Structures are given as C-alpha cells and as structure tokens.
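Each field is listed here:
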Amino acid sequence: SVASNHTSLRNNSLSQHQTINMVSFTTTNDMIIIMIHLSLFLLITTTHTIHTIYPVAVVSAFQHNTNIIPKRRQQQLQYRHPFVLKKKIVIPQHFHHRSSSSLFGILDDLRDFLFSKPKAPPQPIPSTPSSKTTTSTTTKGTITRIASKPYQPDGSSKPSSRTYTTRKESYPKAQLSKHGIVGDYNHYRTIALDNTLDRAVSILTEDVLDICKNSVYGEIQDGDLGENLCLDGFKYDSFQIGSRCCIGHQDGIILEITEPIVACANLCKLQFINRESSSPKERIQKCTEFIDFLNQKDGLRGWYAKVVDLGKDDGFICVGDEVKLM
C-alpha cells in the first residue's frame, strides 16, 4: 500500500511537471507571436509615409529588390493580414547603400526613409507653348511615334531585373492585334493580369513630354514612359474612359480608352532618376516626386486602350496616320 501511494504521488508529480512545461511552452510561443504582431503594428502606426505594407515587405525588399507597390496593383496583389493596416509602403526597386555589406548603413537609410518629414506637394504642371494652340476639345491628331519592346529571354523584361527599363524603341510602322502591338511585351499585363485586352495599347500625348521638359524633369526622352503610341494634336485630358478613336481612314482601326495609366515604381529605373552618383535617399525622393507629378491628373501618365476593330488593313499602322475622336 505504501509503495502504491508512493507510485501514485510520483505519477501525479510528473503529470503536473509536464503540464507546467506544456503551459510554459505554449505561453512562450504565444508571447513570440504577440511580440511579432506588436512590432509590425508599431512599425506601421508610427510611420506616416507608409500606405500599404506586407508583413515581410521590408525584409524581402532588400533581399530581392522588389518594386514599389502601386495603388492599382493592390486589388490583385494585396496580402490580407489581420494585424496589417491598409497602407502603402514605398520601397525602391534597387536600394543600393553606399556600403551594401553594412547592415547598420541599410538600417540607417531605412530609418531615415520611414521617419522622414512629410513630403512636399508635387511640382505644379507648367504651361507649354503647344497647350496654347491645342485644347482638350481637339478631335483630330496624328501618330508621331510607334514603339514596342519584345520579350527578352535573359530576364531583362521583368521589372525585378537590374537591366529593366520602361523605355521602348520606336519603329516607323507596326501591326496591331487584339492583344496590342505585335511583338510588344508587358510583364505585368502578361503575368498578373493574364493578358487582359483592356490594356492592349498604351497612349501618350505629346504635350506630356513638353510638360515634363519644361519642369524639373527636363532630361526625359521620347519613349521613356513606355508608350506604344505617341499622339500629337491632343492634350492629355482630351480622352476619358469610354472615348473611341479611329486610326487612318473611315474603316480604320478603332481603339477604346479603358483607363488612365497610373505611374508606378518601374519609372524609377530611368537614368535621370536612378543615377549612380545619387544616394539611395535622393533616388527615393526623386522617384516618389516624379510618380506624384505624373499622378496629379488623369492622362499625364497616358491612357490604356483596347482594340475594338482592326479595320480593313488588318491592324497595320504607320507614323503620320491620322487619329480622330469618334
């Protein structure tokens, strides 16, 4: 009987010890999870420059050179997390520090970026000589530039590539299909939007380039904004969603405007933005200012259009073709 009581007491003691260990283990895990969420919450709520954040965006941005996450991509790419607020984080595509091997240097730049003062309002839109003779009610213009960029097997067609650029080379003529200019490749449209037909063609008006050249972004070159068609005779606000235009003769190609293009971080790869001589902080500032400048009004970044009808010429277009609003 004494031996039986001793065994029973010993088993109860072991059981209590195991229970205490299990409770301690569970409590420790819970505390770690709570601390992680609390850290994320504090990071987000104490930063006024962040608008949307992913739980691991800050870490992965430096490891994988991710893009800035634009507003238009939130619908397709937003990671829903119960402890993450709907804000937007702006991370440069290439965040090169003066000493890339220095963790403290990277943390210093991140600290300066997160806790910097509120940014100044975007540069005002300057008036240009062409804007005095061209009004938003203009119904006729011409194609001054046709551009496209084929898919590159070396990976440079992906925005994450160090050699990626939005710039597209010009051609005197091209052929349109329902998917856009034949041979043109847009990585985001192809992968994230499953080759949507609503973004088949990107259109830019000449006055946008004039506006940029008469501002602090005077180094911009034709094709830097990656447009497929550049039109003269129209203003950036000549179009609106649902507008249709005809290229060529009466039975020519018909395009329909589907949405204004929203400037995103891919523009940060342009040479006059991403200068090697500039510090990471300066690149971030210049990039965000340029994006804000183009996003002030619909059409400053251009317009997306879908191909409604290829016309009797099977979609062939040339520089100098007339474009009419219908």
